[in-house]
Design a protein that fits this description.
With 227 residues, the protein is an alpha+beta fold. It folds into 2 domains: 75 residues, Glutaredoxin, CATH 3.40.30.10; 128 residues, Glutathione S-transferase Yfyf (Class Pi), Chain A, domain 2 (Up-down Bundle), CATH 1.20.1050. It is built from 11 helices and 4 strands, in the order E-H-E-H-E-E-H-H-H-H-H-H-H-H-H. Strands 2-1-3-4 form a 4-stranded mixed beta sheet, covered by helices on one side. Strand 1, helix 1 and strand 2 form a beta-alpha-beta unit. It is globular. The mean pLDDT is 94. It binds glutathione. The site of glutathione (GSH) has 11 residues, from helix 3. Glutathione binds next to helix 3.
């Protein structure tokens, strides 16, 4: 593998997993080379295939040429290597355990279930919609009256969830519901996050563009399965 000094992120623009890494890098104020996979669903770049030979999925972070895969692992890696720059996880082990629990919940119940919303149809899609709305409400309860999930400071759980802002439109149009009505506090949280420089400068894609991309994918691959 070509030795890459410093940091490089391999990504594909609609990926919520890649967005998390971009926000974390921005929070930490780290410079990195951004490399977009041209058409990840059809063919992978040689660098991606070498960096993640097992799954060949984005995002991958290359640190001095060494690959780190999986968005949750990447964000935690950045926090461990640069602990003094905008710490993302709480300092105490119990706080960290809780944050990791919520990150896992978000991964499965929001983004995992979100895939089902636009890949399935009929009854199965309706079940996914109910599951998704339940998860939004659980997160509303966890956020409660706090500014961010960790309290006053934007942190790990916020970073893991914030890409949902770019995906709400797609989830809503396929699932036929309004997040504003089902989870108004989460909507307000999303707007608050969007005002942060780290989120604004991380190129979260336009929700309309994400929706168009998903429609294009569905047309191209009828009978898509969620996993
Ligand atoms: N759990 C992984 C999921 C990564 C993932 O699903 N990446 C998608 C893009 S969002 C991908 O590379 N898909 C191409 C493929 O599976 O061939 C993470 O959090 O990084």
């Amino acid at each position: 593998m070509a030795e890459t000094k410093g940091l490089m992120l391999l990504n594909f623009w609609p990926s919520p997993n890649g967005m998390r890494c971009r926000v974390a890098l921005a929070e930490k104020g780290l410079e990195y080379v951004y490399r977009e996979e041209e058409s990840i669903l059809e063919c992978k770049s040689r660098l991606l295939a070498k960096s993640d030979p097992v799954r060949m999925r984005v995002p991958v972070l290359l640190h001095d040429g060494k690959p780190v895969c999986e968005s949750l692992v990447i964000v935690q890696y950045l926090d461990e290597v640069w602990p003094d720059r905008a710490p993302l996880l709480p300092a105490d082990p119990y706080g960290r355990a809780k944050a990791r629990y919520w990150a896992d919940f978000i991964d499965k119940e929001i983004f995992g279930c979100g895939l089902k919303l636009w890949k399935l149809e009929g009854e199965k899609q309706e079940e996914a919609r109910d599951q998704f709305i339940r998860a939004l409400k659980v997160l509303e309860g966890e956020l409660d009256a706090k500014k961010y999930f960790g309290g006053d400071t934007f942190g790990f759980v916020d970073i893991i969830l914030v890409p949902v802002v770019a995906w709400y439109r797609t989830y809503e149009l396929f699932g036929i519901f309004r997040t504003e009505i089902q989870a108004p506090r989460l909507m307000a949280w999303g707007k608050r996050c969007m005002k942060r420089e780290s989120v604004a400068m991380s190129s979260l894609p336009d929700p309309h563009k994400v929706y168009e991309f998903v429609c294009f994918l569905r047309k191209k691959n009828p009978g898509l399965q969620p996993f």
